[in-house]
Amino acid sequence: MADLILIPVVVLLLCKISYNKTGLNRDYLSIETTQAMRGVMILDVVLFHFCLDYLNVNQKLLSVCQGDDAVKIFFFLSGYGLIYSVKHKGDAYLKGFFSHRLVKIAIPLVIAAIPHIFLFKHTGVYYLANTPLTLKTMFELFFHNGYTIVYNAWYVVELIVLYVAFYISFKIAKGDFERGVNITVLLTVLCMIGFYMLYLKQNWLHMWYFSTWAFAFGVIWSAKEEQIFKFIQKHFNLIFCVSILMVSFLAIFRREIMFQFSANNYIMSKSMILGPFIVFGIIVGSMKFKLGCPVWKFLGKISYELFLIHGIFYNELRGGDIYIKNDLLYIVIGVALSIAAATLLYYIDRFILKGYFKLIGKKTKEESKQNG
Are 44 and 300 contacting, i.e. CB atoms less than 8 angstroms apart? Predict the structure, then answer.
């Protein structure tokens, strides 16, 4: 029954989709294009989380929606965007990096933590600790298992770490773009290894390490974009066919592959071997196809807030106080409430950020006058 949710999703994907018959889209990773792409990816993540723990593993919905693949796209776009910005703005992009760029990630995270704290206080249980939420349990479960106060915020914490790695890299490079890129990639790989070691030694969640490489992939793609685009343009038909075959193979046989390996080996093989084909295939596909449905652009606009808030609903709608038995109803109500809450959170974040940047702007003007 839950598989019926795929029907409107497919309709929305096909609605107003455009195909470039004459060549490749040069704006395949523009702000407008990536916003729609983020919209599709965040819905993938949300549906994946809603069906991961609560639905029958044989349902097609779980096979089609794979949140870890979508998160790889998010990491790719973040790495791509940072390098694109520093490539066009130079070292000026690094000025005020923490007070301007990172604060856009941190403030929504702090705001999203408020309802999560109320939730954990209400239930009296914080994750696996079976004890009320306290600062002690919060820090213990983070350092021992990688759990965060906001559901799924491991991605946000890791993204902040990678942003800091990017900043350090280009500070060390001192204006040498190629060197900055190389150091960023190196530090990203070291972060991935570090998260993997925490997974082995500290029992951290496997999510912390298996998508990190996509950030480095985005960094390299952005740095070498002209060469990559020309190569794909020259061999597009072959590359596109191979990408479609690999993605189709994974979509059809992912469950069979999973049951042939242990969970850890499956995660490693899918993320490190098949994962790059998925990311590459989606990016190459955007060179020919463009999503025109405004729904995807809207979801892309609130994608960060939706990522932060939807965990409350997939847990609580089948929790202690509320339990929606019907799978389809559970998903429809859960997704609708998640989108509504994310929209509200988005406007709250924009209001706070607007006030923050207004305050920062005044301080900057005052400092300029004093220095002048």
Answer: no
d(CA 99, CA 295): 31
In Å, what is the CA distance from 220 to each residue of 74, 84, 276?
15, 10, 13
Q: Which of 79, 29, 82 is nearest to 215 (CA)?
A: 79
Who has greater pLDDT, 55 or 178? Answer: 178
User: Which amino acid is residue 50, in one-letter code?
Assistant: F
- Residue 19 forms beta bridges with which residues? 289
Alpha helix ranges (H) inside the chain: 6-14, 31-52, 60-64, 67-89, 103-123, 135-145, 154-173, 177-202, 207-210, 213-223, 225-234, 236-260, 263-269, 275-285, 294-301, 303-316, 327-371
Query: pLDDT tens-digit profile of 195-252?
Result: 989 988 888 887 888 899 999 999 999 999 999 999 999 998 888 888 777 767 766 6
List CB contacts of 44: < 8 A, sequence separation 6 or more: 65, 66, 67, 69, 70
Could you tell me which residues are beta bridge partners of residue 18?
Answer: 290
CA-based R_g, the chain, Å: 21
All residues at 6 or more sequence positions from 59 whose CB lies less than 8 Å from its CB, including other chains: 2, 3, 51, 327
Among 36, 20, 23, 79, which Cα is nearest to 224's? 79
Report the residue count for the chain: 372
Q: Look at residues 359, 365, 298 and name the one whose alpha carbon lies nearest to residue 100.
A: 359
- According to DSSP, the residues that pair with 356 across neighbouring strands are none
Instruction: Read off the pLDDT of residues 122-171 as tens digits, 9 standing for 90 and up.
Output: 777 777 656 778 888 888 888 888 889 999 999 999 999 999 999 999 99
Contact 3, 64 (CB under 8 A): no
Determine the Cα–Cα distance for residues 338 and 359; give it in Å rounded to an integer: 31
